[in-house]
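User: Run a structure prediction on this.
Assistant: Running it now.
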Amino acid sequence: MFTSGMAESRQKTVVLQGLDADLFGEILSYIYSGNLHVSLDKVQPLYQAADLLQLDYVRDTCSSYMAMNVERSTCVDLYKFADVFSVESELKRCLQCIYRHFKKVASSDEFCSLSVNQLTEIISHDELDVKEETTVWEAVVRWVQHSREDRLHHLPSILPHIRFKLLTSDDMAAILDHPLVREDPGRSAIRNVVKEASNMNKRPGMDTLEMAMIFMETTNGTGHEILYMNPRAGKYIRCRYSEEDLPSINPITAASGNNIYIGTEEPKGTDQLAVLEYNHAADVWQRASMSTFQRPDDMSEKFEFHEFLVEVDKILYYLFAEKGEISTTVWIRKYDRHTNQWQECSQLKLMVRLSPADSCTAVSCGPHIYFLIDAEMHRYDPSQDCWCKPTPPKFQVCTAVSMGTEIFCTDREFSKTMVYDTESDRWQERQGWLDPDPDPGNFYDDPLPYFFVLDNQLHVWFEALKLNTASKQSDNLVYVYDRSTDTWRDLEASMPIGKYLTPDSHLPVACMYLPCLTAKGTDLSTGCL
């Protein structure tokens, strides 16, 4: 600018448009110190300044920061910005967030500020997660009515992206009678668009089912397979993932927002850890936008350790439990999305010596994390970064799962069910599994249970050894708990034959998009939904 004969080279003062003094102060501070302080309120103008001044590092840092802070309350604003500046990584994450939370996003004021092109890009996408197409129509109506005079003429170009053929005849009649259609001068053209719409692809949310996940051993020993199941609906879908797509199966958690995360070594065989997240619409596992981190340096290679991934108040926690010769140590790492760093939390040191056959588990319930080991229970409070010791279960817990404000546990033999009320710090004993067939010829042994919560009811899955067969045959059994009668009912599940792998003490459950699963997986269902 100053050496090529441009007008600025002859001026005493050059005004940098779009930059204020405070923002340029941040830029100068970075230039001289290498330190950059980014926050949500200034990340967009900082990106614009970096783009203008061609500071690639600042621009890339801002882009990564925005991508990390994409959530339901920010996704529309960040999407509009990413669309203008073609920030591809942020744009993709914003759209995924909008698709997943469309109904709530469409009710926000920010949604009405979208351009017509941005609106049509969103509502035309196959990944839009809605249970009914009327939700899309209602969102369009709200967008048009926000500035009716300026936007009504866009309606004929918007309507072809609504999948009217997925509507009931009553819904279709109501739309044709809507004031936007009935009173508009071009209503005949609009009515024709509505009647002739032929896009019939279902949206993912129109065909969903809550399903538990179990890993299965692959037939050729490579990659990993997951069985997604809902025994009550008789639905079983088996999906296979390559070693590159899913290199690890431990630990796994189903978090809020229908997110599913898996911890993995990156690269494999090292202490460097990363988190993968599941893309429902594509049925693929991909790197979450989280930094990698290392296992605790003082973990000993000669001792066995367990890893757990849990969520509290939409924050992920990674737990490591090392079983030493005379004690057990629990480390916690907390993910801070604002800094994209895993922070070290208070560790727990227990004078408990366990054998390799003994179990331990971690489960989140309300605002706390509960760690159960041997006959002890310990509670971590993230708000205070401290551990305490509530009333113990007084028996060795094999599996535990939370439901509401309670934690349900049982032992390895499934002899009884214990319920812990986190608010009153009290335990209650409930019925365990009773073999329904007293015939010695059909006696089961060694159940090794795994709890899971499906459709807001407690379930248990286990492989029980059938003692009357010479081949030591085992059956996969699924029971549901009836709290009113304190009984377990056999669902008579017809689970696929295969060897099951259970990296955690309970089965994660999430709402799965059936068309996306069946498109790439194998439907092994014995019944119909």
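The chain has two domains: 14-203, 207-523.
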